[in-house]
Design goal:
The protein has 376 residues and is an alpha/beta fold. The protein has 2 domains: 162 residues, Rossmann fold; 189 residues, Rossmann fold (3-Layer(aba) Sandwich). The protein has 14 helices and 14 strands. The protein starts with a helix and ends with a helix. The model has no long low-confidence stretch (mean pLDDT 97). The structure holds thiamine diphosphate (TPP). Thiamine diphosphate binds next to helix 8, helix 10 and strand 11.
């Protein structure tokens, strides 16, 4: 296994001290190391979407002539393809960078359904994109050779090169700096209050990560079934527009989006779409824990973002922020008489139960039950 201090030493030796990206649990310990070291030994830019991390690394190169490292889960590669091929590519601006990609869904290894396809096609996809790649070995001397080689290929060819990170190769690192908020609820408490105060007939579209997992488990606990819920497990950031279009197509149903602050920022433009098409029967709830909670609690810096103002500026009809259980109950009750798209930001602490399970129904089973429910 590789120790984060050793990894840093190798990067530093290669003058790789600029990092930008969206976190992945594959290298969550490295994420902690970056957060602790940011501004001192290195720069860590937390991006809202992987394509922006490519843009940040391009800006860094243009300003400093130095190579940046863009980190992402392989699910984010799709988000990054456009600036990789139309900006950094060797046939366009020739901007060298290293794409540090977490390999979820590696063939033969157990992983969730949403990771399987991208895990299988990732290396062929890099081939098609004409991006050279190397897999980071566990042995530290080998790792040093590979990182140096990757840097040299990027530098000599003035092009993006990928460094693939397999699950479980980094040693645990104990973070010094962590996001600590002091609210009354965690996401699971808030989900329970919302479910208990809705009528039960609402349609819920929940975002990827622990959000959907907690909703699933609460429905199990209540023996309610999962037909009302579209439980997203991938496609981070899409819950809001999926919910919006369902609302537009089904004006007699109430649709509630369960969003995360990270997911909402990843596709913040969705709020403009929602405001524009203006579904009257849509409530957009953002569980704001200030972090990418599902990948280990890395900061999203959502404390600098006023979601209420963004939504109102995009023509939502109402916006509220709640911090307490009492206010949440009240606001959920009020939503029953809503008109026009509404946003509710629920301020919560990060964290989830250690024994939180995963949906035991398949995505297809979920889709079928959900579509049947929508047909009625
Ligand atoms: C395109 C893409 N990039 C990264 C990921 C990895 N990922 C899964 S959940 C998650 C965090 C989501 O954060 P947020 O929306 O704030 O919800 P929370 O986990 O805090 O509830 C990330 C980064 C992903 N699934 N897809």
């Amino acid at each position: 296994m590789i120790n984060c201090n050793d990894l840093y030493r190798i990067f530093k030796k290669n003058d790789l001290i600029f990092f930008a990206g969206v976190p992945d649990s594959t290298f969550k310990d490295w994420m902690k190391y970056l957060a602790d070291s940011d501004g001192e030994k290195l720069t860590n830019r937390v991006a809202v979407i992987e394509r922006d991390a490519v843009g940040l690394a391009a800006g860094y190169y243009l300003a400093t002539q130095k190579i940046g490292v863009v980190y992402m889960q392989n699910s984010g590669l799709g988000n990054a393809i456009n600036p990789i091929t139309s900006l950094a590519d060797s046939e366009v601006y020739k901007i060298p960078m290293i794409l540090m990609i977490g390999w979820r869904g590696e063939p033969e290894k157990k992983d969730e359904p949403q990771h399987k396809k991208i895990g299988r096609i990732m290396l062929p996809l890099l081939d098609i994109l004409e991006i050279p790649y190397k897999v980071l070995p566990e042995n530290i001397e080998e790792a040093e050779k590979i990182i140096t080689e990757v840097k040299n290929i990027a530098e000599r060819g003035s092009r993006p090169v990928a460094l693939i990170i397999k699950k479980g190769i980094l040693e645990e690192y104990n973070a010094q700096k962590e996001v600590k908020l002091n609210y009354e609820m965690k996401r699971e408490d808030a989900i329970k209050i919302i479910i208990d105060n809705l009528s039960g007939s609402e349609v819920i579209v929940s975002t990827t990560g622990k959000n959907s997992r907690e909703l699933f488990e609460y429905r199990e606990e209540k023996n309610f079934g999962h037909q009302n819920d579209f439980l997203m497990i991938g496609s981070m950031g899409e819950a809001s527009v999926i919910g919006a279009e369902i609302a537009l197509q089904k004006p007699n149903k109430k649709i509630v989006i369960f969003d995360g602050d990270g997911a909402a920022m990843m596709t913040m433009g969705a709020m403009a779409t929602i405001g524009n098409y203006h579904p009257k029967n849509l409530s957009h709830i953002i569980f704001d824990n200030g972090t990418y909670g599902s990948t280990g609690g890395q900061p999203t810096f959502s404390e600098n973002v006023d979601f209420e103002k963004v939504a109102l500026a995009c023509d939502y009809d109402g916006a509220r922020t709640v911090k307490t259980k009492k206010d949440l109950k009240q606001v959920i009750g009020d939503l029953k008489n809503q008109k026009g798209p509404q946003i509710v930001i629920v301020k919560i602490n990060k964290g989830a139960r250690k024994d939180l399970g995963r949906p035991t129904t398949t995505p297809i089973e979920n889709k079928k039950a959900f579509m049947n429910f929508l047909r009625k």
